[in-house]
Design brief:
One of its GO terms (molecular function) is nucleoside diphosphate kinase activity. Keywords: ATP-binding, Kinase, Nucleotide biosynthesis, Nucleotide-binding, Transferase. The protein is α/β, with parallel strands linked by helices. The longest helix is centred in the C-terminal third of the chain and has 19 residues. The two termini are 29 Å apart. The structure holds adenosine-5'-diphosphate and magnesium ion. The site of adenosine-5'-diphosphate has 13 residues, from α1 and α9.
Length: 212
């Protein structure tokens, strides 16, 4: 296995599409199949920046919109040395939300362009596979409704979904849309197959840089 790097696999999608469920199941399945795989999530709430973001998301604090966008990006950048290290060691990383959520959630606010929102994340490790868990918002809401955190309302999620769709149109990344309205097991099976193919593919390719 010497020289084989791990793959960077990202799960994106609206709230309740099943990202966290599928990310956990994917890591377990990859490990059971003999791969080395680990789970990451963004925001990573355990760091100092992550604690600021957690408090913001829980509406315990207010942060200016541009400023909080940069903090979400910084929260990804602070994990980059660890990510590169793990990937280099041959560990596949399954990431629950990444820069695309970061961009979509700020660009969904008034007076933010997609271009501006992307800039702080330019150069992050480029995912080898971006899985977009596609689910109608009405179906997502049937899975328990929204919680109390910031951004958890229908109009905002619709706006974020439109931003995701714009990002998906860019040809520079390998997006795979997965129908997330099916059973957990059916979605899992498709995600496993796509991930296995990506792991084989990525092993001998250098890790890229996002949006460069
Ligand atoms: N395919 C599915 N069908 C029905 N319910 C699901 C499915 N996937 C996830 N769920 C349920 O929907 C809720 C949200 O799932 P979660 O994985 O937390 O979504 P996300 O991380 O995208 O917000 C959870 O209660 C989960 O058990
Ligand atoms: Mg989740």
């Amino acid at each position: 296995m010497a020289g084989r790097r791990g793959a960077l696999i990202v799960l994106e999608g609206v709230d309740r599409a099943g990202k966290s469920t599928q990310a956990r199941k994917l890591v377990a399945a990859l490990c059971a199949a003999g791969h080395r795989a680990e789970l990451l999530r963004f925001p990573e709430r355990s760091t100092e920046i992550g604690k600021l973001l957690s408090s913001y998301l829980e509406k315990k604090s207010e942060v200016e919109d541009h400023s909080v966008h940069l903090l979400f990006s910084a929260n990804r950048w602070e994990q980059v040395p660890l990510m590169r290290n793990k990937l280099q060691q041959g560990i596949t990383l399954v990431v629950d939300r990444y820069a695309f959520s970061g961009v979509a959630f700020t660009a969904a606010k008034e007076n933010f362009s997609l271009e501006w929102c992307k800039q702080p994340d330019v150069g992050l490790p480029r995912p080898d596979l971006v899985l977009f868990l596609q689910l109608q918002l009405v179906d997502a809401m049937r899975r328990g409704g929204f919680g109390q955190e910031r951004y958890e309302d229908k109009a905002f999620q619709e706006s974020a979904l439109r931003c995701f769709q714009q990002l998906m149109q860019e040809p520079s990344l390998d997006w795979k849309t997965v129908d997330a309205s099916r059973s957990i097991e059916d979605v899992h099976e498709e995600i496993c197959a796509l991930s296995e193919a990506t792991i084989q593919d990525a092993a001998h390719r250098p890790l890229g840089r996002l949006w460069m």
